[in-house]
Amino acid sequence: MKHTSQNRSSLCKTLLFFMALMLMTNSVSAKKCRALTMSGAGALGAYQAAVFVGLVNNLPAEDIAYDVVTGVSAGSLNALGLSGFDPMDVEAGSNFIYGLWSSIPMDKAFDTWPGGILAGFFHKGLFDLDPGRAWVTREYGSQTPQKKITFSVMNANTGQYINFDYDKTDVLPDDFIDSAFASSSIPGVFPHVTRGDDELVDGGTVWNIDIESPIRRCKEIVENESDIILDIFLVSAAHITEEPDFSSYSALDHFFRGQDIFSFYNGMNDYNSSLLNFPDVEIRHVIYPSQKLSSSPLDIISFTQPVMDKCFEAGQRDAAISAQLGSGGYGKILLEFTEKLKNGEKANLDDMLQARLKQKLEEDNKISG
């Protein structure tokens, strides 16, 4: 009898051991890495801040508790703004970056040199970025990175695309804020950042959106790409619409039209390539402005209240649409919109999104009914 009791006890211990092992295995396999990458956008980076606010208002905190945040150009400044908050503290993070962009019309993001804009031709950039750097440094205060952060820059000496990686830390790295501003230093417009023998400029000079970095950083957390969830905020001054009459176009108008078309397709190609190169990654919310954000190509450096207000309204609206469409929904419509443009068809992104929302609502009503 005693022997039987011992056997039962041994069997129970073995079962408990295997149950614990299974729970641990499930826990490991359930681990996901959530990442956000943001493109260059200039003043339209306010749209990205608004998209994040919109996702916070429409999704559970755990869905947007990013372990990794990366950026290029203005996207780097937004990554900097989100860096100081615990991944789950999405409310505080959204308030901070929204507050930064809201205060830009009152606090100078950049300034002219003594002597006016013409004096800029005798400096390393037309405008002085030091006021913006001092302002952001002051607002960031005593915060330190609380998640994995990457800023993308270009080394103007060699043409090399460089990623500056940072991890969670209790001590602010000396070059952290400077790296974000290096990523935002548009060649010719703002002075480059000198680091040692290297001259660092806007990462958007090479790629306006860096999709590989967030995946690479996530693989420091999880082994399998199938455990990576990636959101992409893709912004451009370009919003391609049909222009039936070019009779009044000046040489400068033609130049900016060409730049708009190039910028749009370049971003779409990067997104499409990511689907092919990383088929196991869940590319969830790919959000691009559904409406035109700017009335002038120069709005990309226009930090005025009307530009900010337009970005704030459009960003929150598009985020709400993406949340309703679910994983991959917005991105799918965006690719369909791009194909229509390539084929010479008339297309309106906002109309296509609204039609899909209506269709989804009807489908959901049928299921629930």
Question: If you had to describe this structure to a student in words, what would you say it looks like?
Answer:
The protein is of the alpha/beta class. It is 47% helix and 14% strand. It is built from 11 helices and 10 strands. Strands 1, 2, 5, 6, 7, 8, 9 and 10 form an 8-stranded mixed β-sheet that branches.
The count of DSSP E runs of length 2 or more, i.e. the number of strands, is 10
* Largest β sheet strand count, sense and barrel closure: 8 strands, mixed
* Count of helical stretches: 11
Considering DSSP H and I runs of 4 or more, what fraction of the residues is helical? Answer: 40-55%
Query: Can you tell me the overall shape?
Result: globular
Average pLDDT over all residues: 86
Gyration radius, in Å: 24 Å
Strand proportion: 5-15%
Model regions low in confidence, pLDDT < 50 over at least 5 residues: 25-29
Distance between the termini: 61 Å
Topology pattern, helix = H, strand = E: HEHEHHEEHEEHEEHEHEHHH
User: Structural class per helix/strand content?
Assistant: alpha/beta
Describe the protein's topology.
Blueprint: H1 2-30, E1 33-38, H2 45-58, E2 68-72, H3 74-83, H4 90-103, E3 111-112, E4 127-128, H5 130-140, E5 148-155, E6 160-166, H6 176-183, E7 193-195, E8 198-202, H7 212-218, E9 228-233, H8 251-277, E10 282-287, H9 305-325, H10 329-342, H11 349-368
Parallel strand pairs: 1-2, 1-9, 2-5, 9-10
Antiparallel strand pairs: 3-4, 5-6, 5-8, 7-8
Helix pairs in contact: 2-4, 2-9, 3-4, 3-6, 10-11
